[in-house]
Description:
mainly alpha; 442 residues
Amino acid sequence: MENELFEKTPVHKAFFSLSMPVVMGMVVSLLYNMVDTYFIAQTGNTNLVAGVSLGAPIFTCMIALGDILGLGGSSVISRLFGQKRDEDGKRISIFCFYVSFLGGILVAALLLLFRTPMLNLLGADQDTRQYASQYYTYIALGAPFIILTFTPNNQLRTEGLAKHSMIGSILGTVVNIILDPLCISTLGLGAAGAAIATVIGNICTDLYYVWVLQKKSRKLSMDPRGFSITGAEIRQILAIGIPASVTNFMTSLSMTLTNRSLLPYGNDKVAAMGIVMKVNMIAVLVLVGFAFGPQPLTGYNYGAKNQKRLKEILAFCYKFECALAVLFAVLLSAAARPLLGLFTADQGLIQTGVEMLRWQQAGMLFAAIVLVTTCTFQSAGKAMGAFWLSFSRQGIIFAAVLFVLSGILGYSGILMAQAAADLLTAILALVLFWRYIVKEWD
């Protein structure tokens, strides 16, 4: 059944079959982010909102670490399944499961050990440190469970279990949404409550994935007796996993750089950007879902050397993703004021956020091109192409553009930086796509 989906099902049907569960999971995650932002903003404490925004990059870093084995492992596994090497794929899934959890324990220990310098790096000041520290501490304690989530979440799709991957995401998010008002407001835990709800949600997701691996999966496993891997296989996982994780590390970097650049203009600017980035996720998470959803399909056909079907898949992905990006950019820009008004009644924050949000949408089409190209490189095992794109959009290119534009235009330059970086990275993506993918077709 799974092989038919990857080999024979019409491209558009296979695309949506694999992508929609991912997107639905993203939409529920989006709902969580909106609810989370709402309850935090409803405290009426600008410093608390800013403190959580400053601590948010730590959570993004954990996603990045989870992607090393989640996306790196799934890329290798999907290509092995395309080559009919199912037992090798199973071994790799076992390795990824246990190493991701053990790695999470190490991350938790390091984050707690270096809490003070990390909070300084994130830009916490006298007004926001209390709240940033509360959020940071509990997110750090939950690192093993947060990082583990991304391994089965990505790998279940390699054997067509996209719906189970989605259910796990939805389960954790629903738990999170239910606990948010209880922990933030009812129990009066504030920033700490937001983090605690997130960690408990991830624990519930992990428990569900353990059940799926034991009861539903035929090609993946968590049986420790099968823990075996070669050095070459580890290098293959890391070759894709590290560039994939760099994307989220760079997201954390860009958030931190943006927040620190905005601090001289006031904590209200940081708070507004925190709300804007949550609204911006309406577009980003859906686009990410449709970009990452068909990865197993791309990897399987690349591994099977089915060039004709691979071309059809990529053509559909680019056309659909770009059209969707334009639609989101128009809608979110037009509805910026009422959307921001859902989270705060502060007209000053809303007015500030409208301009911020519209600049974020200005680069959405280019971001879509980068997303699809990056996912294509990850699926095909093109490590260098994936690395350069992951390192550029919200990393080296963004940092350079932010430095230049903020120096020339000040506050306005900070707001323009992401759109400008998206444009430059899209150009780079097209050049790399020609070099690493198109030239193989000649």
